[in-house]
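It is worth pausing here to work through a concrete case rather than discussing structure prediction in the abstract. The textbook approach is simple: state the sequence, then state the predicted structure, then interpret. We follow exactly that order.
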Amino acid sequence: MPPEFYPGNKSLYVKALAGDKGMFTSDGRMPPSGPETVLSVLSALSGPVKGKNVELSRTYTDEFVDAAKRMGVK
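Step two, the predicted structure:
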């Protein structure tokens, strides 16, 4: 990672990154409830999303994960 990602404390950054790995699935997909959970968090915290009606079926897709799998990306 470029130094801009860990200004001043690379070991702390690496430790935090290692601790966060557990939130990712092994196949790159979100669990079925994932997009709704992300929307809920963003709706509570993000000004541009807060109070807006977001249609997840129009904004979330596994298309890129599927394409990567077809190309053999692991």
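Step three, interpretation. The chain has one domain: 3-70. The mean pLDDT is 88.
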